[in-house]
Design goal:
By secondary structure, this protein is of the alpha+beta class. It has helices at 22-29, 33-42, 58-70, and strands at 19-20, 48-50, 53-57. The chain has a three-stranded antiparallel β-sheet with strand order 1-3-2. Helix 1 (22-29) packs across helix 2 (33-42). It starts with 18 loop residues before the first strand and ends with a helix.
């Protein structure tokens, strides 16, 4: 019998997703995941590291973008 091997798919975040992972934040910001992680580590974008993974609040990212555009 064949074994089932789950495949992780990256789904685009919808407006109802309040917390994003690095891939979701990258999709929202239209940059690569590596760029999101670099910006988060340097404190340039708001995010929290939980264990080994980063999480980003959609609302905080949108606020940050709005402020960045105004400045």
């Amino acid at each position: 019998p064949r074994r089932y091997i789950p495949v992780k798919t990256v789904q685009p975040p919808n407006d109802a997703t309040p917390v994003l992972d690095a891939a979701g934040a990258a999709n929202l910001l239209r940059v690569s995941s590596k760029t999101v992680l670099r910006l988060a580590r340097s404190g340039e974008i708001p995010g929290r590291k939980i264990g080994r993974e980063w999480r980003f609040a959609r609302e905080a990212l949108m606020e940050h973008l709005t402020k960045a555009v105004v400045e």
